[in-house]
Amino acid sequence: MKATTLAKLERKVRKTMVLLPSRFIVSEYSKGRLKFLEKLNEDIPKETYLPPEKLSRVLWGIKFRSPIMNAAGMFKNGESYEVIAKQGASAYLGGTGTWNERKGNEKNGICLPFAPYPISHSASNWLGLPNDGDEVNSQRATKLNKILDCPIGWSIMSSPDLQGQDKLKYLIESMRLYEKSGIDFLEINESCPNTSNGKSQDNDLARRLRYIKDNFLDQRNRRIPVIVKFSNDTEVRQVPTLLDLLFRLGYDGVNFGNTSTDYEVRRNKIVESEKKLYDFFTKTFGGGVSGRPLKESSLELASRAVEYTKNGSPPKEFHVIRTGGIECKQDIKQSEKVGVSLNQWFTCYFENFSLYGHNVYKNLLD
User: Fold this and answer.
1) 10-residue averages of pLDDT along the chain (366 residues)
2) Is beta strand 288-291 parallel, antiparallel or unpaired with respect to 122-125?
3) Is 160 within 8 Å of 85 (Cβ atoms)?
4) Strand, helix or coil for residue 189
């Protein structure tokens, strides 16, 4: 069965499925999600969609085909590049990767826990950065045949399994591997709520970013842009301080942001019939909340970042990316209105795919 067919069938039963016992839902959807991603990788579109030329933009000397692309976490190991390129995405983002291979999280007999909240246009996951490791995936990136002028980026993160200086040392090694692979840009994930301890990275942000500056940014063999991704739980008042740090150290952009662990706040956006499942997942696994509940916070953070960038005069080209709750044309228009350079989507991509199949970008952009 093709991914397009599977997605349409699932869409017909999802609102009934979420009324079943919570543990059963999480177990079945966690397994089903992996099977669907395998199918998607094999389901190459027969027709190619190229976004209208007027929607393209050149950032850091790279031509992005439109304002929207996939977010980190969709394609951990370089899968589905041809699928995404032919669908018409602005660019392709692999990862998030870590130096070492990670199997991901398992609890109560459930591997890589995931739960959808379809009526709320949201989801939860507690995946734990499963990936084959940066050495393997950088080799895969080298072998990706770039097609249709679709740029390739990779999301990376210092491994939660490493400590102290090793954590930084091997992050730099990963960045060098991807630089050599020929990809177009890198995104550093500074906020992953889905590791085994359910917490984001440690709070020694400035030291870590300065180490990357000294050991990678200042030694780049080519002009590969490096973007830093923060959480959608970031307080708006923190934006100027974070951007001043990125400006000073020579980073090329910022992304607001990742999934949320502010469960009480996001719970207000979950419809009543799905709160039982939501409460079960967040209390049992924790993890990150994605989709529509993040729409307002991602727009507010990105808007503040654009405003501060315009007034803060970074020493070189710097762009703001928005991730969280992007699901329709109006969201793209709002981002464009405030000056966001690129958008990324995850949960709402799959929702739109269940409606429009491989026309998922065509429907959004035409």
Assistant:
1) 93 89 97 96 96 97 98 96 98 97 96 96 96 98 93 96 93 97 96 56 81 96 94 96 96 95 96 97 97 97 97 91 96 97 97 96 94
2) antiparallel
3) no
4) strand
CA angle 287, 187, 128 (to 5 degrees): 25
Cα–Cα distance between 291 and 257 in angstroms, integer?
Answer: 12
**Structure tokens belonging to residue 363:** 């429907």
Distance of CA 349 to the CA centre of its chain: 11
Distances (CA, A) of 77 to 57, 121, 191, 227, 353: 27, 26, 19, 20, 21
pLDDT recorded at residue 120: 96
Element (H, E) at 342: strand 342-345
Return the DSSP state at 47.
Answer: S
Taking each helix axis as running N to C, give the angle between helix 164-181 and helix 205-215, from 0 to 180 degrees, rounded to the nearest 10. 40
Residue type, 24: F
